[in-house]
Amino acid sequence: MEKTVVKAKTSTKVKKEQKRLEELFKDLEPNKLSTCSTLIARAAFLTVTLEELEEELNEKGWTEEYQNGRNQCGIKKAAAAEVHISLTKNLNAIMKQLLELVPPAQKESKLSEMMNR
């Protein structure tokens, strides 16, 4: 039951972020707007997922202990940290693609709007 509630909250957050991004890019030419709709959906998902990972990392930390067998143990980067790094790179690439669709005169304002959540 708890997992279902978390999924519903995540889904709601993703939809909210997607609407926010769609509002930012609503003035694009229709052909560019259809191109960027998938990118916007991906960006919204990644943004929400990264926020959730950041909460986990703040709670549990960026490192975790490991033990391989009896004598081999230590500290390694947490699995959530690895995923966070990877998703951050993906989100940055998508945001760059979205900004490339914006006319040069509007790029600076769109960038600052994207950063202000």
Task: Describe the structure in brief.
With 117 residues, the protein is mainly alpha-helical.
Strand and helix map with partners:
Elements: H1 2-24, H2 30-60, E1 63-68, E2 72-77, H3 79-100, H4 107-115
Would you mind describing this structure in some detail?
This protein has 117 residues and is mainly α. The chain has four helices and two strands, in the order H-H-E-E-H-H.
Structural class: mainly alpha
> Can you give the helix content as a percent range?
over 70%
Characterize the largest beta sheet: strand count, sense, and whether it forms a barrel.
2 strands, antiparallel
**How would you describe the shape?**
elongated
Strand order in the largest sheet: 1-2
Mean pLDDT across all amino acids: 87
According to DSSP, the number of beta strands is 2
Q: Element order, helices and strands? A: HHEEHH
Rg (CA only)? 18 Å
Whole-Å distance between the termini? 30 Å
* Assembly state: single chain
Q: Could you tell me the strand content as a percent range?
A: 5-15%
Poorly predicted tracts of residues: none
Number of helices: 4
Total of domains = 1
Annotation keywords:
mainly alpha; 4 helices; two-stranded antiparallel ribbon; 10% strand; 117 residues; 2 strands; single chain
